[in-house]
Design goal:
Length: 376
């Protein structure tokens, strides 16, 4: 979010500084692990559709400017397949995704069990009641490259980047904001705080109460010899049961990599950026294989060739927080995570830049206001 905002401000010829305690792109926050799903039909809610549309436009603009490949339209399959599936269940993620695509005229196909088996035989044991949503324009973006490109272009257009420098204090008055780091003090007219996992610790109340950090694991499983997955696997979100831990997601097996990345999400044990265990144990690798891969995905072995830990910053309703700070003037606080923010980051950076320049954004971001948590 910070890289996108700095880039958009520099592009608009605004004098801008970006400050990061690490050296982005890095592996300590929420924006690493090679790939992030993007899709126009955002089953999390209709309010996200205009945002992701803008992001898709900006990824292509960034590709043209940088010559880097950032956004791969591999096709996206959202799939629900389990014996307890109720086709009338309005909370089902696949059904919600289909509904949004129909409402917003997003190109897609609805697949039944026979079509899923025929087109995507890598999904083992597809239930007869299974339903699939296929969005040909969906796929993935490459977060580290997106960050690196936006920061590089921002610097080329005059932004100053302070890396390896930690913000320790923020104050404001009617004239602007004062940001104190462990190395300097900066004055600015406007401030956008996008501190990810660290936002609660940096900003205190009410953010420390509202934002919880959840450790997540990413796994790259080696392909079976001769597996026909390369070039034939979409980006996917696969619900195989009811409740937490019954959904996994994955990415295409890419040429030359010999592996397929797959992950799931957990919301039962929260951590802090300071205490987060950043290693994945062999027992956790085994557990992932047994619970999410074995018997569900063909062509993939139990061998993990790479793993990573990354963390979500999650709000009570799993939607973003984007709002002016309740007491700090000229300060926008943004926590567009809850596990689904990257696809929106390019467009949000553009919107946050507009807020800095003219006090409002073209995108309607009012549903992410802090007021919805009043009393919590
Ligand atoms: C495992 C995983 C899978 C995900 N999958 C998807 C997906 O498929 N699709 C999708 O759209 N989204 C996905 N997301 C969510 C998405 O990646 C996040 O929403 C997004 O990356 C959050 O970006 P951010 O800028 O808020 O946080 P970060 O990228 O973590 O940035 C916060 C930055 O603030 C810096 N910082 C913090 N405190 C200070 C301080 N005091 N001083 C200076 N700098 C500071 C940090 O160093 C860091 O660089 C996933 C997230 C995870 C963890």
């Amino acid at each position: 979010m910070g890289a996108a905002t700095v880039y958009q401000l520099a592009k608009a010829s605004v004098k801008v500084a970006g400050i990061d305690r690490h050296h982005p792109p890095h592996t300590f926050g929420s924006s690493h692990g090679d790939t992030r799903i993007t899709r126009l039909s955002v089953g999390e809610g209709a309010q996200y559709v205009p945002i992701v549309r803008n992001s898709h436009r900006i990824w292509r603009e960034l590709e043209a400017l940088s010559g880097e490949s950032l956004f791969e339209q591999s096709g996206l399959l959202v799939l629900t397949s389990h014996d307890d599936f109720d086709p009338g269940d309005e909370t089902d993620f696949t059904l919600r995704t289909i509904g949004l695509a129909q409402t917003y005229g997003i190109e897609h196909e609805v697949l039944d069990a026979a079509q899923i088996r025929q087109r995507f035989p890598q999904f083992a044991q597809v239930a007869d009641s299974a339903i699939g949503y296929y969005e040909p324009g969906g796929g993935f973006v490459q977060p580290e490259r997106c960050i690196e490109v936006q920061l590089r272009l921002a610097e080329q257009q005059g932004a100053t980047l302070y890396k390896g420098e930690t913000v320790t204090h923020i104050s404001s008055d009617e004239h602007g904001v004062t940001v104190t780091t462990d190395q300097r003090t900066l004055q600015a007219d406007k401030l956008v705080v996008s501190a990810g996992n660290w936002a609660g610790g940096l900003l205190g109340a009410p953010f420390d109460r509202l934002l919880k950090v959840y450790r997540q694991q990413l796994f790259w499983f080696e392909l079976e010899p001769g597996a026909q997955l390369v070039g034939a696997s979409p980006t996917f979100i696969f619900t195989h049961g009811l409740g937490e831990g019954q959904t996994n997601y994955g990415f295409p097996a890419l040429p030359g990599e010999g592996s397929l990345k797959i992950a799931t999400a957990q919301y039962h044990t929260s951590s802090t950026p300071e205490t987060l265990d950043r290693t994945v144990s062999p027992a956790q690798e085994r557990e992932m294989y047994e619970q999410q891969v074995q018997g569900r995905l063909c062509g993939v072995t139990a061998k993990v060739v790479k793993s990573a830990v990354c963390a979500y910053t999650v709000t009570p309703d799993h939607h973003f927080i984007i709002d002016q700070h309740p007491t700090l003037q000229h300060t926008l606080v943004v926590s567009p995570c809850s596990g689904h923010g990257f696809k929106h980051s390019a467009a949000l950076g553009e919107a946050f830049a507009q807020w800095c320049i003219r006090g409002a954004s073209e995108l309607d971001l009012s549903s992410f206001s802090l007021t919805r948590f009043e009393g919590q």
